[in-house]
Predict the 3D structure of the following.
Amino acid sequence: MMTNNTVLSRTEWFKLFRQSRTWYALGALLLLQVILLLNAWYQGESILNMLLENLKQSFHFQGELLNGHLLVYIVLNTMWFHLPLILMIVVSGMLTTEIETGTLRTVMMTGISRKRFIRSKFLVAVVFTLVTVLLVAITSGVLSYLFFGFGDLFVFHGALNFFESEDAFFRLAMAFVAGAFSMVFFSVCSLLLAVIFRETVKTWIVAAFFLIVCNLLLQMQPGEGWWKSLFFFNLNDTWQLFFQYEIPWEQILINLAMLIGYAVAVSLIGIWWFSKNDIE
Amino acid sequence: MKQYLLIIFLCLLGGLDVAEAQETAILERLRTKMEQINAFSATVRLETDIDFIRMPVKTARMSYEREQPVKLTSEDFVLVPKRGLDLVMWEIFKYDYIAVPRGEAEKNNTLCTVLHVIPDDKKAQYAIATLFIDRQTDRLVEAEIQTRKQGAYTLTMDYAKPEDLLPEKVEVSFEVEKVKIPIRYLAREGEVNREAYKSDGVKTGKVVLYFDDYEIALKG
Amino acid sequence: MSITATNIYKSYGTTTALDDVSVYCKPGEITGVLGLNGAGKSTLFKILLGLISPDSGSIHCEQSHAKPLGGIIEKPALYEYLNARENLRVFGAIQGANVSEKAITGYLERVGLDVNRNDKVGNYSMGMKQRLAIAIALLNDPPFLVLDEPFSGLDPMGVIRLRNLIIELAKEKGIGILVSSHLIDEMIRTCDRIYVINNGKIIREDAPFTLVDKATRSYVLTGASLEKAATLQGGNVIFQGGHVRITDPDPDIGEILMQLGREGFTVYSCIPETDINRLLHDDQ
């Protein structure tokens, strides 16, 4: 009987969610959001007051700026280090644990092709990442809107931008979509690192280092013009572009296409590397 | 001869007084016009024109009752300008004042009488107001108001019809300090030159208010 | 129909792991690869199972089968967070084996595991893990099994049960089994034919009884009042409680046992004590 790729992916999915650490990771993300929301609740008003201090000389504000949209935006902002870090830990563990416990050998002894096996890992890593981002989006949205309601979103992006509630919702949703591409990129990178380094702790250290360096380079924003988009670390805050007053769709689409290109390239390298090397 | 000269001088002075009285009368006519408005409400569309704020056009309902502050109600979030909503110039006429004619000037192709209005009471919130009043319709076309504590602002008013009491469009120009350090939560890290934002100084902002659906309750 | 490795070479840097190694195993045969730790047994088995590539040489498996070879390398590697059925289901699904409840029960029964046990495999003893690993290796009914150090870490009862299972699989199911170990006694008891590997080279291929003869450095006899037997009076005999250890490097054990019989003594057991080093170095 031939095994199809769906069965393989389903098996990977089953294993992933039977491991307690996957649930710990998802639990940690949820807890993180609750803490962030509590923090925003405590500090939000004073943060807004500080930001809008000067405007208050000229304007009265009518309506609540400390609303669900702002909190989702705060969650978005703070998630882009924690989320990839946790994703990288879980995703790289999908392979390193199998290497360390020897189950990879047992799997490989079943006669399955290495290419198909590692391809299913990459596929499941991508799907898991997308599901996790969706989960974060849903939980942050539900918690935020439930406790803080809707209203206009106020962000700083070159200028103080105000977006009406519906527009804000759309932009936040699109930011999660764009952010998911970055998360997928980090996930497949961590799986590539797992293929190369094989040991769990070593892979985690390298993955965390990679993430930190990416964030540092992202802040530096090296490069100018079109070739700035060639550097993957410049692409990872593409989601922020949804908070420019006029959404630069063309730039966003180019960036996301580049990110997809990088993710595919990383996956192909991972598959090639895994296939050509011995399973010790 | 000396007597003639004195008479001529007094006549000249009297003529001056008469001219001055004529010019300040326009202010009184404006005041009378405004004071006949007991209450009004209108739909107002707010357009914010400040270079570091980008905001969609907002709509609110504005209501005024004599000697009460203006109220704006909206389902949306709105930045309500603190100044410029006083369409009936209640703040100007609230306390005794001295009016000093400053001649004529053309504003928006309208010949206006220019007057300085200086409050005679320290409780007044403004220090001096320069009013440009349409000579033909006795309506306020522009007001430059120097407040005691909150800087200066300028109101420019457009009216839909010659008989309208209240404007259909008001531009409120004011000075506003640029926003201070954006906190990390709300700013894209890496792109903010914090020092630049601190020292960017004062900017001119403008809010344009479009009024519609006036419901005006007149005295009597 | 057999599995054959021919002229296998494998080196890691300057270290030669396997040097011109050739082995084969026929269906229903239990073939042993005996050697000390680090001799190259696991490397050879990994090559047989396709986990690593040889520098040169070839592997040939005549059976055209979806899974020609199942195996365990070094220790049973299982998903410890899953139960036995789930492990079988996962490994079975990967290779397209029948993973129906009935089939899984069949595999569990075949290796003598409790079919009703539902706790995590992490709680299992090493012997049970070995059995489950064999059940997994048997998924898809491969005609050959490769078991690397299957007796390591097992208690004596576990060793006996596993040995019986291996023999049963080979003799009743006709599966060809390659077993590696450094435990010479177990290999002698289990295998039909044994290769001895040392420093990456096959230095010997013998029947078990030949190896017993070559590797035995002493025999332990158990019997009543053996200290009184005239046959056992001599320099190379040590009495320990009810046991007698004959330390003569080359005793004629058959003759000794016959003489003891003639003297009227009953011998309950005669156990050879082997030393693998005697097989590795001809001078011992």
Residues 2-36+44-56+94-212 of chain B form one domain.
